[in-house]
């Protein structure tokens, strides 16, 4: 009996050493909450599309770059936590932490298969992150396919926020998950996902975060350059602009105006902007003085001369160009008053002169881009979109409810 006890002890000791040596892949059996730090950033990766829109291979590269970015961060003051949902793998909650002079991926929890775009699942993941990694402030990064405010469907090219095995998530549900699970408004949300800088999205989420960072059009194929972006997520002064500039600057240097031939050599441009949430109510009020005045009795706006940001849903046009068109141009006093509110809300915007679209597979001009998109309701062919549009907060706040649409 004594020999059996000794043997059991030795086996247990060996298992303990093995677990320690393999800490880059697996975490402790019973994770312990970390003491409160300055900032926790949760990266939410939805990579398993379930069809040809698969993103897992790209996201694995992004994950590796996040680890490299954490090498430049003071780990004593921050947490970078990743919820990873990839093809041919169970979902995990992973802490990228510094240990013995290097950054390791500590897998804290492994979950049964679950839909990461279900609002209850997302809420629980966020709440678990907050419980184990409390902080003075929080940030959120979202990686997947997306298509701004558009209602969820099973169309692979018509995505709202996220795309998991042909399922999607509506923006109001996304808002509910964030608002219910985080203990305070986020410092920022970085949408590493296409078409998310729309005024409809920002207004719906305005009480969830201080700043929104993303693109009104398609993002570069490889996504954010996380080696450069991660250190900026933990800065204080000009936080959102720092993130946006790191993202934009990386691809601006690679830009040639020529369609990219691969994600490894992205020459196809970039557009990035930052929206300040506490200025959105004033922007809505300014917009409400214009929309119902110039659009009455279900008038259709001629959109042919306006900059379109997407080539599938017909849902995203340059917001500034719409207001200029309605009021008669930049010299109009109403437009100038509205533009003040707009500039207070869109505090950063940069774009290369052209961008590449994977939908139409060619470069397109970004002339006139001001970094924020909007929907322009039109005829009965888009009746489903128009119906869903009426459920968004922006619809009434901006005066669309008085236009007949």
UniProtKB/TrEMBL annotation:
> Gene3D superfamilies under this entry?
3.40.50.11970
Q: Which domain of life is it from?
A: Bacteria
Q: Which UniProt keywords apply?
A: Signal
Q: Which positions carry the signal peptide feature in this UniProt record?
A: 1-20
Q: Which Pfam families match?
A: Peptidase_C11 (PF03415)
Name by which UniProt lists this protein: Clostripain-related cysteine peptidase
Identify the species of origin.
Bacteroides faecis
């Amino acid at each position: 009996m004594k020999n059996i006890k000794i043997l059991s002890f030795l086996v247990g000791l060996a298992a303990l050493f093995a677990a320690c040596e393999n800490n880059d892949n697996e975490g402790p059996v019973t994770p312990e909450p970390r003491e409160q730090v300055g900032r926790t950033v949760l990266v939410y990766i939805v990579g398993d599309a379930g069809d040809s829109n698969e993103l897992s291979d790209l996201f694995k590269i992004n994950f590796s770059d996040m680890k490299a970015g954490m090498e430049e961060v003071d780990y004593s003051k921050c947490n970078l936590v990743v919820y990873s949902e990839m093809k041919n793998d169970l979902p995990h909650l992973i802490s990228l932490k510094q240990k013995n002079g290097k950054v390791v991926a500590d897998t804290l929890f492994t979950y049964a298969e679950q839909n990461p775009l279900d609002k209850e699942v997302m809420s629980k993941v966020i709440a678990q992150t907050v419980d184990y990694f409390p902080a003075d402030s929080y940030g959120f990064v979202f990686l997947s396919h997306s298509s701004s405010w558009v209602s969820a469907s099973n169309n692979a090219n018509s995505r709202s926020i996220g795309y998991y095995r042909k399922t999607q998530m509506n923006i109001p549900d996304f808002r509910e998950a964030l608002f219910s699970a985080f203990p305070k408004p986020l410092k920022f949300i970085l949408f590493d996902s296409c078409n998310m800088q729309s005024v409809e999205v920002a207004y719906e989420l305005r009480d969830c975060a201080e700043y929104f960072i993303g693109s009104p059009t398609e993002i570069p194929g490889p996504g954010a350059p996380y080696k450069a972006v991660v250190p900026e997520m933990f800065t204080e002064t000009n936080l959102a602009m720092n993130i946006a500039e790191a993202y934009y600057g990386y691809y601006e240097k690679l830009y040639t105006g020529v369609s990219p031939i691969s994600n490894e050599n992205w020459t196809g441009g970039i557009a990035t902007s930052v929206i300040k949430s506490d200025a959105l109510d004033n922007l809505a009020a300014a917009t409400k003085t214009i929309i119902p005045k110039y659009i009455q009795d279900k008038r259709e706006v001629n959109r042919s001369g306006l900059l379109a940001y997407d080539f599938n849903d017909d849902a995203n046009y340059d917001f500034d160009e719409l207001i200029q068109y309605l009021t008669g141009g930049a010299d109009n006093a109403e437009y100038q008053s509205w533009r003040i509110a707009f500039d207070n809300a869109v505090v950063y915007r940069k774009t290369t002169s052209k961008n590449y679209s994977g939908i139409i597979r060619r470069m397109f001009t970004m002339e006139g881009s001001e970094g924020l998109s909007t929907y322009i309701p039109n005829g009965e062919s888009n009746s489903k979109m128009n119906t869903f549009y009426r459920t968004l907060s922006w619809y009434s706040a901006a005066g669309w409810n008085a236009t007949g649409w």
